[in-house]
Amino acid sequence: MSDRFFVDDFASERVELNDAESHHALRALRLEIGDSVILFDGKGREAQATIAELGKKRIWFQISCITERSRELPGDLVIASALPKAERQRFLIEKLTEIGVHRFIPLVTEYSVVRPGNQHLEKFQRYTIEACKQCRRNHLMAFESAGTLATVLRCFADYACFLLHPSGSSWSDMLWSSTHSELNFLKTLFLIGPEGGFADQELQVARENGCQIISLGQTILRIETAAIAIAANMATFLQRTDSD
Fold it and tell me: CA nearest 80: which of 167, 129, 153, 157?
């Protein structure tokens, strides 16, 4: 399999990698003129290309063929989650990207330990690019600005909304017993709270906005475990129903 690199767009047949991608190609992979690679633009297109020129810190490719190749899940799967600490954030973003989540929203809650800022979104963008390179996804997972539970619910009022909480109904029973006419699972929002859980007032706001409270089982999951588990479960459901 050819090495994959991210470029902002395919504006011409000759493209230049940014600093980070060039450094990886030159220093880590030690690519040479004439080597073949795959480029992707994060919007669903990928291109076959060969190295045309090497500089000390930059690398240029000649594109030979561009194709539209989407490996996306059907619909719009959105995860709004409180942030875990440190390196667990990277693990969370990488795995959600690999699974196929379309959008991620850092969630600000009453008991949040990590308060998201612009620096988080910049890091998350790098993490999702690296994950897309590895898993062959051609669309980058999108990131929304951080918001409170009430704000997120207002913005996604027309989505099927589910909040993860130990007191909720069984997610598996609800998902696999539902028909397509009962819930529009093609536009789905999942809310995951911090390690301290959601406050009672937040649960009430969720219920008042039509959000269903669900549980993944009897154990208490870490933030990233809950987000990855529900995303993988939903991805399996979407892929199965899309093929029926």
Answer: 153
Locate 79 and state its tokens. Answer: 């995860």
CA distance 105 to 59: 34
Phi/psi at 38 (nearest 5 deg)?
A: -115, 130
Cα distance from N-terminal residue to C-terminal residue, the chain: 31
What's the confidence (pLDDT) of residue 174?
Answer: 80
* pLDDT tens readout for residues 144-201: 999 999 999 999 999 999 999 999 999 888 877 755 444 678 899 999 999 999 999 9
Return phi, psi of residue 29, to 5°. -90, -20
Are 10 and 41 contacting, i.e. CB atoms less than 8 angstroms apart?
A: yes
How would DSSP label each residue in 11-72? -SSEEE--HHHHHIIIIIS---TT-EEEEE-SBSEEEEEEEEEE-SS-EEEEEEEEEE---P
Three-state DSSP at 112 gives coil
213 and 169 Cβ atoms separated by less than 8 Å: yes
206 Cβ contact partners less than 8 Å away, ≥ 6 residues apart: 149, 153, 161, 163, 191, 198, 213
Q: What is the pLDDT of residues 210-227, one digit of tens each?
A: 999 999 998 999 999 999
